[in-house]
């Protein structure tokens, strides 16, 4: 039952995170005005703003101009809900759940902003840095300095790559990884980086192969960081244990 409430919360917050991710980089207010249809400018009425439900009731069309509404919106809302629902099943019903939900929330906003504008807004990183710092003071990692070591490692590793790749990796990613190190500690942040680049290489490679993107076209890295980090955070110790076991067995 409570899992369903988390799903519902996730869906509702997901729709709000989408608005934040779209408006903060443009320095627009996240409260007013209400969202409009991107085609005809028709301002959405409260009953057209119900996440997922409105989309289904309107069969994916704007009530003003009948143009198609991108299925990305309800998918994104549903994905946020599903991640919220999954979090307690993985980290348990502990205080760590608060950290997990904060992490998912930050990633949803960053992914929207990075996909649409290729930036991770400083404002978002600063908000979440404050929240995460507070959370790690109240519920520190074991040992507590793992946060410090993680932040330094995340920052240094990404800075080197940003410099070497000459803009292939943005400075937003460097700051994000410092923050992720603070939240996750050194071991998980390294695994997060490994998985993010792995996902990026595989998906990026496939996108090139199927000509969805052109060679040298910059790809936002935020979605891969989100996928890699959540995988590392949720299943990191299992992955590391499995890997060590695998090495010991010598195939
Ligand atoms: Zn319209």
> In sequence order, what are the helices and strands, one letter per element?
HHHHHHHH
Q: Low-confidence stretches at least 5 residues in length (pLDDT < 50)?
A: none
Number of helices: 8
Radius of gyration: 19 Å
Q: What's the helical proportion of residues?
A: 55-70%
Outline type: globular
Please count the beta strands (DSSP E, at least 2 residues each).
0
Largest sheet: none
Mean pLDDT equals 92
Helix vs. strand class:
mainly alpha
State the end-to-end CA separation: 43 Å
Quick tags:
251 residues, mainly alpha, 2 domains, globular, binds zinc ion
Brief sketch in words of this structure:
With about 250 residues, the protein is mainly alpha-helical. Helices cover about 70% and strands about 0% of the residues.
Draw up the topology in text.
Elements (H helix, E strand, L loop, with lengths): L1 H22 L29 H5 L14 H20 L4 H22 L4 H17 L7 H19 L6 H39 L12 H28 L2
Helix pairs in contact: 1-3, 1-4, 3-4, 4-5, 4-8, 5-7, 6-7, 7-8
The structure holds zinc ion.
Q: Describe it for me?
A:
- The chain folds into two domains: 1-116, no CATH class; 140-251, no CATH class.
- Helix 3 runs antiparallel to helix 4 and helix 4 (96-117) runs antiparallel to helix 5.
- By secondary structure, it is mainly alpha-helical.
- It contains eight helices and no strands.
- It binds zinc ion.
- Zinc ion is lined by residues 37, 39-40, 42, 62, 64-65, 67.
């Amino acid at each position: 039952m409570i899992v369903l409430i988390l799903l519902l919360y996730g869906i509702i917050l997901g729709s709000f995170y989408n608005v934040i991710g779209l408006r903060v980089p443009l320095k627009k207010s996240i409260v007013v005005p209400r969202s409009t249809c991107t085609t005809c400018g028709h301002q959405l009425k409260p009953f057209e703003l119900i996440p997922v439900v409105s989309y289904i009731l309107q069969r994916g069309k704007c009530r003003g101009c009948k143009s198609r509404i991108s299925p990305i919106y309800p998918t994104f809302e549903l994905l946020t809900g599903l991640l919220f629902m999954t979090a307690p099943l993985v980290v348990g019903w502990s205080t760590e759940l608060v950290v997990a939900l904060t992490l998912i929330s930050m990633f949803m906003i960053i992914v929207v902003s990075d996909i649409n504008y290729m930036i991770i807004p400083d404002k978002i990183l600063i908000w979440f840095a404050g929240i995460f710092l507070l959370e790690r003071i109240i519920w520190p990692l074991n040992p507590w300095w793992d946060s410090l070591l993680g932040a330094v490692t995340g920052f240094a590793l990404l800075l080197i790559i940003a410099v070497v790749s000459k803009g292939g990796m943005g400075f937003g990613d460097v700051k994000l990884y410092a923050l992720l190190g603070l939240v996750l500690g050194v071991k998980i942040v390294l695994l997060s980086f490994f998985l993010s680049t792995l996902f990026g290489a595989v998906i990026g490679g496939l996108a090139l192969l199927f000509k969805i993107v052109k060679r040298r076209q910059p790809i936002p890295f935020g979605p891969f960081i989100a996928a890699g980090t959540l995988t590392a955070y949720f299943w990191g110790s299992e992955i590391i244990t499995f890997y060590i076991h695998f090495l010991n067995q010598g195939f």
